[in-house]
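Can't attach files on this board, so I'm pasting raw text. These are the components:
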Amino acid sequence: MKAINVGLLGIGTVGGGTWTVLTRNQEEITRRAGRPIRITAVADRNLDLARGLVGDTVKLTDDAFALVKDPDIDIIVELIGGYTTARQLVLEAIANGKHVVTANKALLAVHGNEIFAAAQKQGVMVAFEAAVAGGIPIIKALREGLSANRIQWIAGIINGTTNFILSEMRDKGLSFDAALKAAQQLGYAEADPTFDIEGIDAAHKATLMASIAFGIPVQFDKAYVEGITQLQAKDIRYAEQLGYRIKLLGIAKRKANGVELRVHPTLIPGKRLIANVEGAMNAVLVQGDAVGATLYYGKGAGAEPTASSVIADLVDVTRLHTADKHHRVPHLAFQPDQLTDFPILPIEEVETAYYLRMRADDKPGVLADITRILADLGISIDAMLQKEPDEGEDQTDIVLLTHVAKEKAVNAAMAKIESLDTIAGKVTRIRLEELNG
Amino acid sequence: MKAINVGLLGIGTVGGGTWTVLTRNQEEITRRAGRPIRITAVADRNLDLARGLVGDTVKLTDDAFALVKDPDIDIIVELIGGYTTARQLVLEAIANGKHVVTANKALLAVHGNEIFAAAQKQGVMVAFEAAVAGGIPIIKALREGLSANRIQWIAGIINGTTNFILSEMRDKGLSFDAALKAAQQLGYAEADPTFDIEGIDAAHKATLMASIAFGIPVQFDKAYVEGITQLQAKDIRYAEQLGYRIKLLGIAKRKANGVELRVHPTLIPGKRLIANVEGAMNAVLVQGDAVGATLYYGKGAGAEPTASSVIADLVDVTRLHTADKHHRVPHLAFQPDQLTDFPILPIEEVETAYYLRMRADDKPGVLADITRILADLGISIDAMLQKEPDEGEDQTDIVLLTHVAKEKAVNAAMAKIESLDTIAGKVTRIRLEELNG
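---
Top answer:
Structure tokens for the assembled complex are below.
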């Protein structure tokens, strides 16, 4: 069969990886796809760099807007990133009847509804396996592999930078700042790491997974996002002593009255498989009503792992290129007219367990005051850790793990505890998930 | 759109689970599939049992051969198991233009080539996600999610019964027989556990994965199969002391001159995520050249987990029901005319590392004799464990871990070691895989 022609927008890390893998495995990929898949045009601002990689065998341009209109191109791969130009290019490609494969989680988490609607109208596919968890085929698993299930929740380590930092903090007892510096030196964190360390990148990915899992539009603006910048080495240590690890999780959970969609540092039991996902690796744990828990683990970033997902999408799109709409898997797993307006719950309505650390005077009655405040608000205590005061100090750290409570109640409790004369400063709060189905 | 009508052959554990999940999640599955998927007929020898489950709402028959010809049925779900009747029914269903979904790994591992060829000729699909690793969507991951990759190897814990037994042996220091009894009492092992404990079930699954990964026909008869019945509690203990766990792995590995396809107890480093898969859980580790290592974990058996995969296949088949052949994913991942005759290597040609345990006289020179034999055959030693003789004994256990060597050389070394006067009885050999890419 006739080859499929791919136009590549952006030939940086992932674009270069896509070129490399597609070239290296051309024969094997063709044996699977049933026809050759070829990058026949590349748009990049840096033409010299592009030429250095792909030579003179493909059309090279610095005009991406011309490429998305090129009648010879069947599929556009968007690897430019960002919200603005990428959005225009993707919409333009769709308007020109091109299928789109993208790794751009930010774009889809923010403008996904507009883009998927445009694609639906034009009868083209927008595939985005590479947008979540790099090389792990988690979009396919959620959208197709688990289609029998009512998905109950998803909890994922979906940002390698922060997982690397947290692993370093735990392994080496480093502060956040020191671990970030190590991550930057090793290339695991960018010079401006804001998107990663503030949890925004993870929230983009969690937003996409929530849509697919629950059949709701993408709603990044409703996600609760808390990064790891405030995390202290001692919290990691105390958590460890209580049998927990701290991971930055992207969580999407179905509740009776809506969906919890949140990214924050989370205590999870150390014995869970996902607690042992270290360094820059990613893993997503999915709870379905029929299948129970399944876990998907692998590299969440990098040139070739991400290219692996881009090309898997290219193979899928190639296969269904000329198929009818109803032969294709819907973009967000559910048929476009079957999405619901099941609301995203505000963080105050979230129900989870909590780790609360406070600095308290080391004298009788303090603990009684704290537990009274919690009890009055209906919050029950699961475990406690009280440290001996350091020599010469008359204050000590108290750590409490609560049972599941409503965030609103915990906010109220924290305010009351902080107002006690015997408590110094703020209460540190980290959410806790047992992840046990 | 018009509902898809499914005929169910066998309404035992998995069949019952399929009915239950499809009924419970009907609305959500329809929202995904775009049309209702309904079990409209059931064939089972036990009509009373079937009626008790599905009531009078569906056609009930004890004549499965009539059902596979029923013109009202679009897809046949085969959950009878076994090679003989199941084969006839599946071929008959295909001949009648029905798509087939099956959980029958034995059937496909042995008669897959015949069945897939018949399906190809008739233009129907045979889907079998449920045949490997229960609810884990591993077939989809291998066949579609990793289609960019040259798969290098697969190593899977793909039999829950044996993994449960091995976990019990390690946790509680039980003998194999005691652990098997515990597994039977808890329903994790059948009254006749041969297929599981002898590794045959795992080999069926490994055979299917090898075909999909490497683009070769199914060749169960070429698989090397060794179960866990000879495993001693002390080997699990010694392995632990050396930093390893023993798991029954199904391994498929691409080598320059062919494919290794083997099932046997295997030492794997205790720090690997897959080493910590306990009880009846399954996990498959896949190494691809682009993506690196990815791991898939979940329940490998049970009514609803297996039903999860059966129904995911039903949704896929429903979607592509009326599509052209080239819109569909090939049965064995590669286009049917693109399978190769890349050979399965005989076990003597396998290259791996080894755990060797022997009972030796506790006197000078013994170790020198053993290491000389190994060195002469080009086998180098990675680690050694020598126990003090128990009180009153003049023999002791010596455990050696070798670097990677050819099985043939290790066989020769074992024979020579066993012929030493200072060695009592046979050498125990367990293969070892580092699983590090």
